[in-house]
Specification:
Elements lengths: L1 H4 L21 H5 L25 H5 L6 E7 L2 H11 L7 H9 L8 E4 L4 H7 L3 H13 L8 E3 L12 H7 L3 E3 L7 E9 L3 H12 L4 E9 L4
Parallel strand pairs: 1-6, 2-5, 5-6
Antiparallel strand pairs: 3-4
Helix pairs in contact: 5-7
Length: 226
């Protein structure tokens, strides 16, 4: 009814928004968001060139603190633009449809859901944590407790988009802390986009160091390796 009275335009293609479930993104643009089904590392999920490469060189040389990474699609096209609308344009209503993408993944049984946190100063600037919003929806869908206070970002870091390669890992090293009792728990760590994996590695490390039995990472998108 609201769309009939006050029609909105899809910010991706400028056509009329036609479905309230993922408004303002139109059905054509939303349907173009595809789940990645190509070859990837069975641990960190990074896309690989060959289907015969089951574990990437990085995971072979140093086992990451998480047991597995799941993500819906590649960080490009309509998926990238939709994440930007939520993250930078503050279209919070997109949290629910993006959450449904995560809910379609083969997420294992876990004891709690932990969103990757923002530093307090960054949170005040942005006014909300998009990952926490998505995690809240996912918590309801999976009927798993949302654990907002388990992980804390204690050191403000420059945006990861401003640095590349090894600098990203150095950028976030020791910037997360877990203080609550999570001993023996299997946790689902939620992020919006994984680029090099530096943020989720440090986040998972903080959880494991505090006694978590296992950390599985889930994200909306993963960047293609350069």
């Amino acid at each position: 009814m609201l769309n009939l009275l006050f029609p909105s335009k899809c910010p991706l293609c400028e056509s009329t928004s036609d479905n309230h479930l993922h408004n303002p993104v139109c059905s054509k643009c939303w349907s173009s968001i595809e789940r990645y089904s190509g070859p990837s590392c069975e641990v960190c999920g990074i896309p690989t060139a060959s289907p015969y490469t089951t574990i990437c060189e990085s995971c072979l040389s140093k086992k990451p603190p998480f047991s597995k990474v799941l993500y819906y699609g590649i960080y490009t096209g309509a998926l990238k633009k939709t994440i930007h609308l939520l993250k930078f344009n503050k279209l919070k209503r997109l949290s629910s449809p993006l959450c449904l993408l995560l809910n379609s993944l083969p997420i294992p049984e876990v004891d709690g859901i932990v969103p990757v946190p923002l530093h307090l100063k960054r949170l005040r600037q942005r006014e909300f944590n998009q990952t926490a919003n998505i995690s809240r929806c996912l918590s309801k869908k999976l009927k798993v407790p949302l654990m907002l206070n388990v992980l804390e970002k204690v050191r403000k870091t420059p945006p990861q988009t401003d640095v590349t390669g090894k600098e990203r890992l150095k950028n976030v090293k020791n910037s997360f802390r877990s203080s609550e009792n999570i001993k023996g728990l299997r946790l689902l760590l939620v992020d919006d986009v994984i680029t090099t994996g530096a943020t989720v590695k440090e986040s998972a490390k903080a959880l494991i160091d505090s006694g978590a039995k296992e950390v599985v990472v889930v994200a909306l998108a993963r960047s293609m390796p350069k």
